[in-house]
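User: Hi! I'm working on a homework problem where we have to compare a predicted structure to a textbook description. Could you give me the structure for the chain below?
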Amino acid sequence: MRRADRLFQIIQLLRGRRRAVTARWLAERLEVSERTIYRDIRDLVLSGTPIEGEAGVGYTLRRGYDLPPLMFDAEEIQALVLGARVAAAFGDEQLARAAERALSKVEAVLPPALRPKIEEAALFAPRTRVGQETSARLLTMRAAMNEREKLRVRYEKVAGGTSERVIWPLGAFFWGRSWTITAWCELRDDFRNFRLDRMDEVTPTGERFEAVEGRTLKDYLARIGVEHDL
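Assistant: Happy to help. Predicted structure tokens:
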């Protein structure tokens, strides 16, 4: 869990309790050490969060306290809307639904004066035929990347004909009109990039692969001289 998420969860846990809770109680639920909780509580108090109590006794959150509404400027809201619409247009169905949910959550916590900015954002990403055709393949590819599962793919070569490969999918890159998949190719025993729209078949093998040194996405990016965080 990211530290920002953990701080948010601490506030939520304190808000939901009428009695003081100990650092041990918080640590058990967040699966961190008590020392981490003490440090987080201290930083929350220093930032102005009205937490009362002390170590060894317990902590409570002053009643009526709520997190301040999210504040975005017009450019930030447009960036969020465009990102969600691009995900909906060129991602798979699950990404499209996730983008819609995320935008709804942002809208729900925006101050009333800023909420119309979401609908007013005149930035669009229409779904194309290619986006529709690659949607199912991208969903399978993302699941395989998350689970580190090898895939068997049948691929249309640029020079003509097809090739069957067993690949370790490492990363998916969107280039505006197409997706490419960076993978470790067992046939070539090296990294290869495959265009998603040239894949005739994408089949999970049920076999897992490990993050072997020299065969990770980080290794590939280092080889081509690209910063890992892109």
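For your comparison, note the following. The CA atoms of residues 158 and 198 lie 9 Å apart. Residues 129-147 form the longest helix (19 residues). Good luck with the assignment!
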